[in-house]
Amino acid sequence: MTAGPEPGKAHGARPVPASRRGGWAAVVPVALGSFVLVLSELLPVGALTAIGRDLSVSTGSTGLLVVAPGLAAAVAAPVLTVASGRLDRRWVLWALAGLTALADLLCAVAPNLPVMLAGRVLLGVALGGFWAVGAAVAPRLVAPGSAHRATALVMGGISVGTVASLPLAALAGGSTGWRTAFWAAGAMALVALAAQLRLLPPLPAGPVPAGRALAAALTGRAARTGLAATALVFLGHFAAYTYVAPYLERHAEYGSDAVAWTLLAYGIAGVGGTFLAGHTLGRSVPATVAGAAGALAASTALLPLCAGSPVAVTALTLLWGAAFGAVPLSLQTTLTRAVPTAPESGAAVFVTTVQLSLASGSLLGGLVADRRGVLACLVVGAVLSGLSVAVTAYAAGRRGGRATRGQQEQQTGV
Hints:
By secondary structure, the chain is mostly helical.
């Protein structure tokens, strides 16, 4: 789960003549594809307890269902960025939509954890491929003046998928069974594939990105700092977030319906956080990053202390959702500014960092949950998110210091 390249900067892509653009009718199935991918990625979070009970595995082991796609996506993003360089982007999107459907349907019928993990690995490949390759397609489908709106529609699939995934899984887990949620996701992936087959125009690719371009995204100090902040906040978030449903059930003592509605509110708050970040980033990127990570750290740190108060738990969950809604866009903007000459390479490295951190955070949370309990996961998440604030503040301080010294040198003529 991450944002795509900056609109209008699909590096190396050949322009599509106006007569062959698919228009808004072609943007919609691409947006549906992004929605289904994020929905599928997060489904296990909302039904973690039910899945573990049905497959007879511990909560920590069930958390591997979040770890597996993250690791697969981390590998797939840079590999597919290079390997699919000469392929028509239609074919890439078709393959990724088909792979998403296969992954969800495999999870829906999985008799045990290993089979389900196999489905989640397939989903991870689709995730890495889409965010590294497919997310840049939208601006090519419409007139240049509409590129930002087309990209916003595709990126909107992230927010809507986040909003829908947890309550869908929680409601299904409490009524028809968690497998229903995966059947529904698989069906939606097939709908997205059918629409893409029908509506996408030819989208010829540009030259294959060189491996050294990917490495170049890691050389600058600003890029490394941004990636460090990204790793820490995603580690912390997913160490805690993967186990939010068990926390609400066991410690806040919410029923299944209350869990579903709380997670729905969390997702809606996340959409609000995304739009808020879009406004505040124009004023200060470091402050937006630090503010989002700080609010995330504060909410996860306070939740263990407020488990007995439904009002406080709900309010802190909403703050958490809004804070994390601002995180991907803020950090993506940080990295885009750090490597402006190689946006696709920067995006691939960002996706890899996010997915590795997502997987590692979920794995760390699982180990902590099995040994110290779910409340300890929240504490770990708070500490790691707090470290992200420290990294961001330190980097901003260094930049401010260099700017001040530069001004002084200009004034003194040194």
